[in-house]
Design brief:
Blueprint lengths: L2 H20 L5 E5 L1 H6 L8 E3 L7 H14 L5 E5 L3 H5 L14
Parallel strand pairs: 1-2, 1-3
């Protein structure tokens, strides 16, 4: 197992445990790419939980949101961190187009 995969598994396991401990106190859910993972600190927003992770696209953000609203009824606010680059790297991406200055 690569060190990167091992670290990712440990991080996701820790997030799952913290999320379970938060329970019904969860009011603000944060989803999206690594910009949100590193840019949103829940300690400054009580009742929030950050489920952002590296290369998370809108599809996966939606399914995380859907799952959380079905299991935790207390979510009042959704924060989405979105970066353009995941469109080009997701499994269902539209191929990137090259833009040329001369035509």
């Amino acid at each position: 197992m690569s060190p990167l995969l091992k670290n990712s598994i440990i991080l996701l396991s820790a997030k799952r445990k913290m999320l379970q401990e938060m329970g019904e106190r969860l009011e603000t859910l944060v989803v999206g790419s690594s910009h949100g993972d590193f840019g949103f600190d829940p300690k400054y927003c009580p009742g929030s939980f950050n489920l952002c992770c590296r290369s998370q696209d809108l599809k996966h953000s939606y399914f995380l949101y859907k799952q959380m609203t079905e299991t935790v009824g207390s979510i009042k606010t959704l924060v989405i961190f979105y970066s353009v680059f995941p469109l080009e790297t997701s499994s269902n991406a539209v191929p990137a187009r090259r833009i040329s200055a001369s035509r």
